[in-house]
Amino acid sequence: FPGAGHVAFVGADRVVKDGGSFGFGGSIPLEKATGAEVLLAFSMNGQPLRPEHGAPLRVIAPGYIGARSVKWITEIHVTAAPSDNYFQQGAYRLFPPDVTADTADHAAGTMLGEIPPNAVITTPAGGAVLAAGRTTIRGYALGGAEIARVAVSVDGGKTWQDAALRASTSPWAWRLWELDADLRAGDHDLAVRAYDTAGRTQPEDLRQVWNIKGYVNNAVHRIRIAARP
To answer: What distance in Å separates the CA atoms of residue 162 and residue 27, rounded to the nearest whole number?
Structure first.
């Protein structure tokens, strides 16, 4: 219809808040909803969808926060504005670091949607003690847009090296990466950051994205390890 801009979903699970009862809900932009990657799913791995996964019908919206992949769907609406459901308009909101629970104005918070780029080191683990020399560092990256590059630092962010990316069948799947690095004997601060095809990357410090609810923490992931002769 004229002015249509969003597709809103409501689930069968009920929420009681402030004396009212309503279903969990949320919406995604119409342009996203009509993308080939967005699904109304009723099966998984060739089997009927199980209740814990949202049976009989659920949304799969890759690249958006999980709250937009509504389960147990009972209603679908095409709307001009984003969903007015509490979980879109009130609960899942992002605030600047200086906002506290007492000063938060949910109407002024930023509505969460697309996932920003993020990367994590999985191997070695933080605090690991390794033999000095050639070491393989591994992890994954993901985001709302395709991951274009992953950079790794072994000196706390002073210098960076591009990691090798494994092939991916989907822009919204985890992108596995690895880097072979020569570690001298001593302590090392490892860090990783991802870049997506839209040119976005991660903030250097957690303090830049800290917020009262802990949402969308995509600061550069850092761990400390030791290499011994």
So the answer is: 36
Residue 221: phi, psi to the nearest 5?
A: -80, 130
Across all residues in the chain, what is the average pLDDT? Answer: 95
Collapsing DSSP to helix, strand or coil, 161 comes out as strand
CB burial of 107-126 (b: ≥16 within 10 Å; e: otherwise) equals eebeebbbbbbbbebeebee
CA 50 to chain centre: 24
Q: What are the beta bridge partners of residue 189?
A: 224
Q: Return the sign of the alpha-carbon dihedral for residues 200, 203, 208, 210.
A: positive
Is the overall model pTM greater than 0.85, yes or no? yes
Bridge partner list, 159? none
Question: How would residue 2 be classed by pLDDT, with cut points 50, 70 and 90?
Answer: confident
* Angle, vertex CA 128, rays to CA 123 and CA 132, nearest 5: 90
**Rounded distance between C-alpha atoms, residue 220 and residue 155, angstroms:** 13
Give CA–CA dist 69/175, Å, rounded: 21
Strands 118-123 and 175-183: unpaired
Would you say 141 and 220 are in contact if contact means Cβ atoms under 8 Å apart? no
